[in-house]
Amino acid sequence: MALSEQAITPRGIEINTAAGAPFDARGTARNLLHETRVAALSCTDPSGFPYGTVTNIIVEPDGTPAFFAAGLTLHARNLLADDRLALTLAAFGQADVLTRPRLTLVGRAVRLAPEEAEPVRRRYLARYPKAKLYLSLPDALMFRVTVSGVQINGGPARNAAQIGPEDLRIDIAGAEDLISAEADLLDRLNAGPGLASRAAARAGRWRFAGIDPEGATLDSGKESVRLWFGTRVTRPDDAFSEIERLSHEVKA
């Protein structure tokens, strides 16, 4: 689907944007994308009814969401027949999710060929180490999502923000060295005593689970935190230095 095609039908109701509270829609959406571990996935069943499930997600270096599905699952069957889907990201563990921001991504699921899937599998394992139990299944499939429409809801009185897929993208031009060295860089970062915990600035056992030119994602096994860089980086050593700098700032 071309990004110019309309994936989300406008609501048809005029919204008074001045009535809403100040809201950083782009920043909130980007944080939700990188920090949310579990998403609601909706697809179309052959019956014509919508079919929903939940799944883990990761984010590729360019900001593209990706997920695993076993070939035997109903949602894998549905997506292979009709690739349209929606992912909804929110703080599902909160007592009242309607008071918190929610992000809906609409687009198409692209099944990855084995050679394309390998780097996505590595990044998936970095965030979900126990995934090795199911990624080794003979029918394990990896999908990435071509996002065509975005809807961010900030909570009460913050419903009018308009952003698009381009707001979630990360420029990876010239960052080939950083991306190819990600696994080694994660090992180096996680070997640094207390570096991940300082960078996360939260209680728990944290580790670095992903790096891209604009930031790093840390994971505790229960939640994720996004560390945004102060400057764009394209080389492993520069990313390491930026993370060290930010971790000292957080501690201070």
Descriptive report:
With 252 residues, the protein is an alpha+beta fold. It folds into 2 domains: 20-168, Roll (Pnp Oxidase, Chain A), CATH 2.30.110.10; 175-249, Split barrel-like. It is 29% helix and 27% strand. A 7-stranded antiparallel sheet has the order 2-1-5-6-7-4-3, with helices on both faces. A hairpin with a 5-residue loop joins strand 3 (58-59) and strand 4 (65-70). The longest helix is centred in the last third of the chain and has 16 residues, at 236-251. The radius of gyration is 18 Å and the shape is globular. The protein starts with 24 loop residues before the first helix and ends with a helix.
Q: What spatial order of strands do you see in the largest sheet? A: 2-1-5-6-7-4-3
Average pLDDT taken over every residue: 93
Which consecutive residue ranges, at least 5 long each, have pLDDT under 50? none
Compute the number of strand runs: 10
Task: Count the DSSP helices.
Answer: 8
Task: Tell me the radius of gyration.
Answer: 18 Å
Summary keywords:
alpha+beta, Pnp Oxidase, Chain A, Split barrel-like, 7-stranded antiparallel β-sheet, 8 helices
Describe how the helices and strands are arranged.
Blueprint: H1 25-35, E1 38-44, E2 50-56, E3 58-59, E4 65-70, H2 74-81, E5 84-90, E6 102-111, H3 114-127, H4 132-135, E7 140-153, H5 176-180, H6 182-191, H7 195-200, E8 207-212, E9 215-219, E10 224-228, H8 236-251
Antiparallel strand pairs: 1-2, 1-5, 3-4, 4-7, 5-6, 6-7, 8-9, 9-10
Give a nutshell description of this structure.
The protein is of the alpha+beta class. The protein has eight helices and ten strands.
